[in-house]
Design the sequence.
């Protein structure tokens, strides 16, 4: 598989996906998913990583972050991925790669596309059939957005509110709940490869700007229109995968299934 994109332009929002080696279910136990989240918190504390949302499934993660230009994203991903793999391999007396070669990053426009990406991440485990509502999946940002902890917060709710043009968190939380509930069980809650298989997603102006900013890396990339959305296509093998749907609904505390 070709190496995933991980070139970051300061000031933009990025949707990051990182998959376990050979799509193995190495995050199937809650303790390992919590390990990843603990190191995510540590990355925010050490490097100032601006986290907008996340979901940890049993074989991959989704992470929505804003780049501030301090090189915090690659440093954070190195810390989180490295320490999660190290602790797992030590406990299991395992050797070998834990993650795929590289994580993939997609730039997301800070308009309605940001909200769509945010909700797409929220509904990951609902699409997988593991839970009926994102509030039931502990290893995600939905619960923290709705009920921010007084200590050890991972989500930067202030940045999230500012980027979505709300006046305060309470108004954002209200609309956030409505967005999620509207898509639950609807045709809109389907896997959409645009969020994890492109260099950029947004309107035409945003995608053209990203192509310019990415310069040599994106000069041969194609801008593709999908109704009201434009993408900067990554010419690489599909980043998707296949699962046995007969596995059914599994407990969120300990399962072998994952979202997409």
Sequence:
């Amino acid at each position: 598989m070709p190496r995933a994109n991980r070139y970051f332009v300061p000031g933009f929002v990025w949707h990051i996906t990182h998959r376990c080696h050979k799509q193995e279910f190495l995050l199937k136990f809650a303790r390992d998913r919590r390990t990843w989240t603990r190191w995510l918190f540590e990355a925010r504390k050490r490097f100032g990583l601006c986290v907008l949302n996340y979901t940890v499934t049993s074989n991959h993660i989704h992470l929505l972050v804003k780049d501030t230009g301090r090189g915090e994203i690659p440093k954070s991903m190195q810390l989180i991925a490295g320490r999660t793999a190290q602790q797992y391999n030590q406990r299991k007396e395992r050797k070998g790669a834990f993650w795929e070669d590289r994580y993939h990053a997609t730039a997301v426009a800070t308009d309605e596309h940001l909200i769509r990406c945010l909700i797409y991440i929220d509904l990951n485990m609902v699409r997988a059939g593991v839970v009926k509502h994102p509030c039931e999946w502990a290893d995600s940002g939905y619960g923290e957005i709705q009920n921010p902890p007084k200590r050890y917060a991972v989500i930067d709710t202030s940045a999230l509110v500012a980027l979505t043009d709300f006046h305060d968190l309470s108004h954002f939380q209200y609309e956030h709940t409505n967005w999620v509930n509207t898509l639950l069980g609807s045709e809109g809650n389907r896997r959409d490869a645009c969020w994890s298989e492109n260099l950029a997603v947004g309107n035409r102006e945003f995608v053209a700007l990203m192509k310019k900013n990415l310069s040599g890396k994106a000069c041969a990339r194609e801008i593709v229109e999908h109704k009201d959305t434009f993408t900067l296509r990554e010419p690489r093998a599909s980043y998707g995968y296949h699962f046995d749907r007969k596995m059914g609904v599994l407990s969120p505390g300990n399962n072998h299934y994952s979202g997409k």
DSSP finds eight helices and seven strands in the chain.
